[in-house]
Amino acid sequence: MKYTLRKQFISIRNSKDLYELNISSDHIVMECIQKIDWSSISSVSIYYPINKEVDILRIVEFLKSRNITISLPVEKGFALWNDAVPLETNKWGAKEPLIKQLVIPDLAIVPMVCFDRRGYRIGYGSGFYDKTLCKMDKVLKIGIAYSFQETSYIPNENHDIRLDSIITEKEFILCA
Asked: In degrees rounded to 5, what are phi and psi of residue 42?
């Protein structure tokens, strides 16, 4: 079922107009800035968007203005990223820091292919976020997606990590 959902929602996202997705990305980033309590956040993991994912890179200047450390996902966790750290393209086509200085963020902003309101998500199927975040129980996990990526139920297994909340261009969802 996960495979079918993944294929279905990737197809839906790929069919969307890039201009409309960019407008939605702007709304999602504004929701992030407004709805997240940044007072206790000193380190954030974001992701480098691929395949028409929400363009969370639009939040970088805001994070820099608050002196919040930024990291990107790499095979073994999250690696520090700033203007001095060059990027390379990984096997999935996403950019990641060439220098792998691993950090544990206070907040992980997580992309997804689809999600449900319980906080379960489907990604591309490698299990990176589940494997990585299960070792980081104090990390706040916020999923980022377009509203059309919501489905009524994501099948879940014991190793699947639930998100604390989800932000779309239409709402901020606290996961039960």
From this structure: -115, -10
What token pair was written down for 88? 């390379």
Rounded to 5°, the CA angle 112-49-101 comes to: 100
Cα 141 from Cα 170, distance rounded (Å): 19
Rounded to an integer, what distance in angstroms lies between the CA atom of residue 64 and that of residue 87?
Answer: 18
Count, residues in the chain: 176
- Cα separation of 35 and 172, whole Å? 7
pTM for the model: 0.95
- Report H helices in 45-127: 60-65
Domain of residue 33: give its range: 2-174
Count of structural domains within the chain = 1
Per-residue pLDDT of the chain (176 residues; tens, 9 = 90+): 999 999 999 999 999 999 999 999 999 999 999 999 999 999 999 999 999 999 999 999 999 999 999 999 999 999 999 999 999 999 889 999 999 999 999 999 999 999 999 999 999 988 999 999 999 989 999 999 999 999 999 999 999 999 999 999 999 999 96
Question: 28: part of which helix (H) or strand (E)?
Answer: helix 18-35
- CATH number where 67 lies: 3.40.50.10420
Of 104, 92, 96, the residue nearest 74 (C-alpha): 96
